[in-house]
Amino acid sequence: MKPVIKDFNCFAAAELYALYRDVYSSSAGMSETLEDKYPSLDDFTADVAALERLPGAIALAVELAGRPVAYLTIRPRSQARLRHTADLNMGVAQAVRGQGL
Asked: How many structural domains does the chain have?
């Protein structure tokens, strides 16, 4: 199957949250746990909604076999001195790592 890049709003929040759970639980380099960042699906959903309201924000996921398997978000910073910067966040599901997504 060919991977397809889609906007976050093409997926159910629960699907994306499951992807984040997989990435966070299988990546040793994370600076915080998923439970610290998003204690619940509602917290995750609220953060994605806030991200999507930011001018210039990007929230994409890679779909493979009908489900999201990787994500990339770019969250522009709003502080006056940092408006030229953004936070980049990305992750790939453990099952598809090393496959060239």
From this structure: 1
Order of strands, sheet of 67-76, starting from the edge strand that comes earlier in the sequence: 4-7, 58-64, 67-76, 86-92
Single-letter amino acid, residue 6: K
Count of CB atoms within 10 A of residue 88's CB?
A: 10
Say how far residue 12 (Cα) sits from the centre of its chain: 13
Which pLDDT tens digits describe the chain residue by residue (101 residues)?
A: 899 999 999 999 999 999 999 999 998 888 888 999 999 999 999 999 999 999 999 999 999 999 999 999 999 987 667 667 788 999 999 999 998 87
Which helix or strand (DSSP H or E) is residue 59 part of?
strand 58-64
pTM metric for this prediction: 0.90
Q: How far is CA 22 from the centre of its chain?
A: 11
Residue 6 CB partners (closer than 8 Å, separation 6+):
60, 61, 62, 63, 68
CATH classification at residue 39: 3.40.630.30
The pair of three-digit structure tokens given for residue 56, joined into one six-digit string: 């210039």
